[in-house]
Amino acid sequence: MKLVVFDVDGTLVDSQHHIHGAMTLAFQAAGLAPLPRDAVLQIVGLSLPVAVAHLAPGQDAATQALIADAYRRAFMQARLAQAAPLYPGALACLDGLAARDDLLLAVATGKSRRGLAAMIAAHGLEGRFVSLQTADDHPSKPHLSMLLAALAETGVAAGDAVMIGDTSFDMDMARAAGMAAFGVGWGYHARDRLAASGAVLVAEDFTDLGQAVARWAA
């Protein structure tokens, strides 16, 4: 049995508009100028307090906490208004992998449990993942805690597992856990950054990714 662990934002769902919009409102709530979209997208995948610390390093703890709280409220409102869409081909790829009897699927995300549950419900993904690891229970990526928990829950050895994500944080934690690391080219970090962080490959689309996983699992 082998384990395939997916990141969420920038890998399965395109949440960039929700994320940048919510962070813009959060910075405005703190009386700060909003940041460019590209700057905000570079921290996607980190747990929220860590992400805010990266984006507002000169602000004190109280201001950073205000930004984080405002972001949570704004992101939830955006999510309730309209769920972030799955990337093209994501559902078919997940269904194809979940149908195999030699693979288990899991998630490791900087989202909260509530946010992940909402995403799964919005897209009808219930029952596809046997392990769900979120920021509520672990240190921020790239700490390997999420992956160690997924391995422990499934009983799969690190050498039989792969992490799939769109950021260097995903690649770094996969390497730290002794797992293979597959990057995706449609997310928020550049291909060369993924490669420099240890990505074995960077998939062009979900068809390419599904084929890569099949070759790896053979």
TrEMBL record:
Biological process, per Gene Ontology: DNA repair
Enzyme Commission number(s) from the entry: 3.6.1.1
Transmembrane segments: none
Keywords of the record: Hydrolase
Domain of life, per lineage: Bacteria
MF (Gene Ontology): inorganic diphosphate phosphatase activity; phosphoglycolate phosphatase activity
CC terms in the record's Gene Ontology section: cytosol
Short name of one Pfam family: HAD_2
Protein name: Pyrophosphatase PpaX
Species of origin: Paracoccus haematequi
